[in-house]
N-acetyltransferase
Amino acid sequence: MVQKTEIIVQKKNYTLRTWQTEDAASLAQYLNNKNIWNNCRDGLPYPYSQEDANVFLAMVQAKENIHDFCIEVNGEAVGNIGFIPATDVERFSAEVGYWIGEPFWNQGIVTDALKKAINYYFEHTDKIRVFAVVFEHNSPSMRVLEKVGFTKVGIMQKAIFKNDNFINAHYYELIK
């Protein structure tokens, strides 16, 4: 089966596109980073291997619509923006999560790419609300969300258990 790469947006410093099987090596290289893992759910394996990348890419490609967006820089897959649709009475909402390889931190790429991915997601789904949960020590991610237009709606005390510690979760939302 030949995969077609769908480009969502192409900028001077990055491309936002669909994931491809060929992205596995680059994905494993950039996501195998404890500094990234420290800000993600424990469902993300660490260390992150080529096999983990293959499993992720197969899962993404099996989805019916685009819910995961590859951030490409200089021809390499270096980050992800993913949406998890909610269900039942929350079915018009989705949680968003994102990461980018450490060499690309603080360059404004995630902020711009997140805006574009959310616009695309709102245009191509029936979702009217996107939310994000950020670990209390991740102030750069909070700034990204605020720049994109999210509002902090609360802080859940000791809602996260990560690295043998309870930490607070900052809850953000963006309404279409």
